[in-house]
Amino acid sequence: MPSPAYRMPAEWEPHRATWIAWPHNRNDWPGKFAPIPWVYVEIVRHLHHSERVRIITMDSARPARMLARAGVDLSQVDFFPFPTDRSWTRDYGPMFVKTRGGQLAIHNWRFNGWAKYSNWKHDVRVAARAAGKLGVSLLDPGIVLEGGAIDVNGRGLLLTTEECLLSPVQQRNPGLTRRQLESVFGRRLGASRVIWLRRGIEGDDTHGHIDDIARFVDPSTVVAAVEPNRTDPNHAVLEENWEILRSFKGLRVVPLPMPAPLYFDGRRVPASYANFYIANKIVLVPTFDDPHDRTALSTLAILFPDRQVIGIHSVDLVWGLGTLHCLTQQEPV
Which pTM was predicted? Predict the structure, then answer.
């Protein structure tokens, strides 16, 4: 069988940079926006020691001042003046792949605001603008896909959920079948096998993104969120996903706890430790002032012995219905 034309490197493979979009849409954190830029400062403060940070913003002056106050070396930061609607770079930002010859390219997946929101006309252009700035090829797979909907091990395995990509609710690609999606993933991402989990967690407005429930941490190991409380709506969902993963031959599955349910303004938010981000020398993990924070950090520290595992306070951040993985996108070397 011929090798695929493109391969998406695993997140733990060496990065040249991390991309983020500086927060500006106050409607994403209604009544709680003030602390959010400082959470981004903390993220950049940790990232910039081991890789460049590319920040998408139409106004670089204020973030530059904030970063300088926190001791960030601005020579490690690039500012890209692209307009954006929202800050969830994982889902609309440049998704990098490598060609058979090892050259970088960017897939210009179509983005439609998670088939839910109307403000996406700037976000959908970011990948093309990034390709133009970097001088890399821009590829058009021809379908809607968000970065948070998939996770790869870089060796032919891809994780996703039926709820996100096959459900008639928030339907991304009407009429596209499971087999057709698998064919696209094979050609465009180098995924020879797809593991379909069932559903995502409560509070997730993306309708089932994988990066809140299960993540690869090495080519043959997945961490999977678990909820032992049988009265919690997430219990049955995560147990079913766990059994699917455990039945997959050759895959080691490690449990990752869920934090206690977190609410704001009467709404449950999608707090999950699985929304961590793997950088060159560190792993950034969302924390929630929860007793399970310590267990989650310890579990990931064991799984990433060559990286420092760092907790980032995310109680305010998750009110935007996403945390660290949702707002980052890696650029491989």
Answer: 0.97
